[in-house]
Amino acid sequence: MTAGSNARLPHVVLNPGPTQVMGILNVTPNSFSDGGDWFDHDRALQRGRDILAEGAHIIDIGGESTRPGIVRTDSAEELRRILPVVRALAAEGAVLSIDTMRAEVAVACVEAGAAIINDVSGGLADPAMLSAVADLGVPYVAMHWRAHSTQMDDLARYDDVVTDVRDELAERAEAALAAGIGADRLILDPGIGFAKTGEHNWALLNRLDVFAELGFPLLLGVSRKRFLGDLLATGDGPRPPKERDSASAAIATILAQQGIWAVRVHAVRQHLDAVAVGHRLSRR
Question: How far apart are CA 245 and CA 239, in angstroms?
Fold first, then answer.
């Protein structure tokens, strides 16, 4: 393992206890919910400190938006956005996850102190990703994915969404293991909102037991997503992203009851409360 490995990982990943709360730090000008809020490095660093102060277990740092329809950021710009923030927060003891689809970015960020790679493409966007992560020896989140943001809405077609997503995600798990990523370092994510309609998302959330049967921890990212805005729509249209946190937290309560490994969220404190309630309800 490289110098970026973190001795706390066995607690965070392998035996975390109650559902972990992963706070989102988008260092981008164009993310769907908070694009531009933390694009400045100083503001991003302060936001990371605030996320820690609110009690997040992990900070997920991303330098490339994956909102539907967005054109990709190049790797040099992605690194320029996030590396200074990664170095600073890692030096302050934060457990950092890097939201990237590029092996080059993954390697640079782990070398800078990051501890987890969160790849929304599950290794499909960059053929070098899986072997790079295997060499790094860090935990890897493989999400269900079908295409980049400019195409993914066109591919939201399934014979049976639960079965199809499970089978495609199982293929990514097999590919990760074959590349040398340890089974004890692999986390799966069914990819809520990625090449999925609202109905697809609800169907997946209703059958998470199917994904748990794959035998790996699960990460879920539902925070502020479009299907919640549609659910809460009024005559004025969908509920704006920053007004969807209560609905996000309601889902987090249920996920914590089910023993989901982690939830990826914008409003950390609200979701910590939701997770605490869910965890307590799961006790008999």
Answer: 11
CB 37 within 8 A of CB 91: no
> Average per-residue pLDDT in the chain?
91
- Beta-carbon contacts of 16 under 8 Å, excluding residues fewer than 6 positions away, are 57, 261, 262
Q: Alpha carbon 207 to chain centroid distance?
A: 19
Tokens of 211: 């994904």
CA distance 123 to 127: 6
Q: For residue 88, which amino acid is it?
A: A
b/e map 178-188, b = 16+ CB within 10 Å = ebebeeebbbb
- Predicted TM-score (pTM) of the model is 0.92
Q: How far apart are CA 264 and CA 58, in angstroms?
A: 9
Catalytic residue numbers read 225, 264
List, in order, residues 6 or more apart from 184 with CB less than 8 Å away.
13, 14
pLDDT in tens, 201-231: 999 999 999 999 999 999 999 999 999 999 9
Cβ(33)–Cβ(242) below 8 Å: yes
CA distances from 35 to 3, 30, 154, 206 (A): 31, 4, 24, 30
The strand ranges marked E within 104-197 are 116-119, 140-143, 186-189
Q: Give the closest residue to 63 by CA, choosing from 31, 23, 21.
A: 31
48/23 Cα distance (integer angstroms): 8
Q: What is residue 213's three-state secondary structure?
A: coil
At a CB cut-off of 8 Å and minimum separation 6, what does 284 contact? none
Element (H, E) at 220: strand 219-220
* Torsion from C-alpha of 123, 94, 187, 272, nearest 10 degrees: -130
Burial class (CB in 10 A: 0-12, 13-18, 19+), 50: middle
